[in-house]
Amino acid sequence: MIRLVCLFCLLAGSAAAETAEAKGGILRWLDKLSGDTEDLVLGAGEAVERGQLTIKLDECRYPANDPASDAFAHLTIMDNR
Length: 81
Prior knowledge:
Helix content: under 10%
Strand content: over 45%
Low-confidence stretches: 1-15
Shape: elongated
Structural class: mainly beta
Radius of gyration: 14 Å
Number of strands: 7
């Protein structure tokens, strides 16, 4: 089993911003073979299987002073083959 850990950080600016923890997030899934997209609604700690992958949302954060701004998430993606 191959295990990949990804960190997406989309906060703008060079200074560290105050962040707040979200209870979950929406991830957009793209199946590159079929071209289909799907929005995955996950709570923190939840996982979903798509094809041969398991995608788990470990943590999601957003800028505390601007909740509508860019957020970032820590995902664990596992290949189930």
